[in-house]
Amino acid sequence: MTRKSYDKGTIADLVDGVLPWKQVKDMMSSYKDPDRFIKYLEVLQERVPWSDRILLPLGPHLFIVQKEDGRIVTKSRSGFEFGDYRKNWKLKARIFVRKTKEQYREIYTEMTHADPEWMEMREFYDPLDGTLLDIETVPPAYPLVHSFEPDLDTFYTQWLGRSYRNDN
Question: What is the pTM of this model?
Answer without folding.
Answer: 0.90
